[in-house]
Amino acid sequence: MKPQVIIDFMRHGQTMYGHVLAQEMERLGYDPKSLFKDSQIQPAGDRGERPSKRIGLEPGRLARYKRIGYEEHKSVRFAQDNETQRMATEGRLTEVGLEQIRRATKILRDMMDPEQEVLMLFASPRARARETAKMILEDLAKNGIPVEKARTEIKLRDVNTHWMTILQRANELGVRQNPWRWWLEGSDHEALGRIEGSEAIRSRISRFVQVVLRYVRIYRGSPHLSSKGLRVLAITHDVPILCWINRVLDIRSFEPGAIVELKIDQTGTARLQIVGSDPREERAIGPVQAFL
């Protein structure tokens, strides 16, 4: 049966680790270069700025693209000082990360049917996800693919405090492996109180899917959209997705630029698969509401 809703969860591209986080790791006796062998540390003097020709949108601006043209939304902005501080902790996309997102966007375009689908884009407020989203928006605009934007809303979670807390807690317990891998694979961290546990993250992603399903009902009332399927692209991170899908798919890593696709048909039955994997690895997960 043809899916009524498709939700593509895409991980942002490979990112430099901000020097603030790297310095804290070194202070606690961790070696960031050995734990993150495939990553880079952003230099302290690097403000994370990129030439406008690469991104195509100025920092702090959200945009939507439709067939009738281009419209900027300037109501949601980040102060440059705040943006610089975020980059110092979070880092920015590497050249490898930029290429990963170019490839992922092409895969997305190849999967889409713009005449039969309405595309909506959501992005995590973290700098790396926003940079990824800007690249994708620019690519879709160049290829004439419209993006519906129902509303502009950013809810910041203090993710920097969250990750620093995990790092410090792992150090207190003498954990010398990757602190975030230790946290992700653990089962008793919910009781710590000050750290958001995997169940809380899983519930958060499930609530997001429920929001998407409400959008479906809204769009069904629009005459020009009622006959189309809804495709949602969610730019996110590896930990939320791993927390959410590990009940269905046995995977331990979610690579930069990878896409996990959730398809929901008109009966409410859902199927889950990593895009590009063997089709036989697609998993039917039954009624989506039961899964959530």
Quickly describe the structure:
Helices cover 40% and strands 18% of the residues. The protein is α/β, with parallel strands linked by helices and 292 residues long.
Overall description:
By secondary structure, the protein is α/β, with parallel strands linked by helices. The chain has one domain (3-46, 75-291): 3-Layer(aba) Sandwich (Rossmann fold), CATH 3.40.50.1240. It is built from eleven helices and eight strands. The chain has helices at residues 19-27, 32-35, 52-55, 80-90, 95-111, 127-142, 159-172, 179-185, 198-219, 238-245, 288-291, and strands at residues 3-11, 62-66, 69-73, 117-123, 229-236, 259-265, 269-274, 283-287. The strands form two sheets. The chain has a six-stranded mixed sheet, sandwiched between helices. Strands 2-3 form a two-stranded antiparallel sheet. It is globular. The two termini are 21 Å apart. Residues 47-81 and 150-156 have low confidence and may be disordered.
Write the layout of secondary structure elements.
Elements: E1 3-11, H1 19-27, H2 32-35, H3 52-55, E2 62-66, E3 69-73, H4 80-90, H5 95-111, E4 117-123, H6 127-142, H7 159-172, H8 179-185, H9 198-219, E5 229-236, H10 238-245, E6 259-265, E7 269-274, E8 283-287, H11 288-291
Parallel strand pairs: 1-5, 4-5
Antiparallel strand pairs: 1-6, 2-3, 6-7, 7-8
- How are the strands ordered across the major sheet? 4-5-1-6-7-8
Major sheet details: 6 strands, mixed
Q: Provide the CATH superfamily.
A: Phosphoglycerate mutase-like
**Computed structural class:** alpha/beta
Low-confidence stretches: 47-81, 150-156
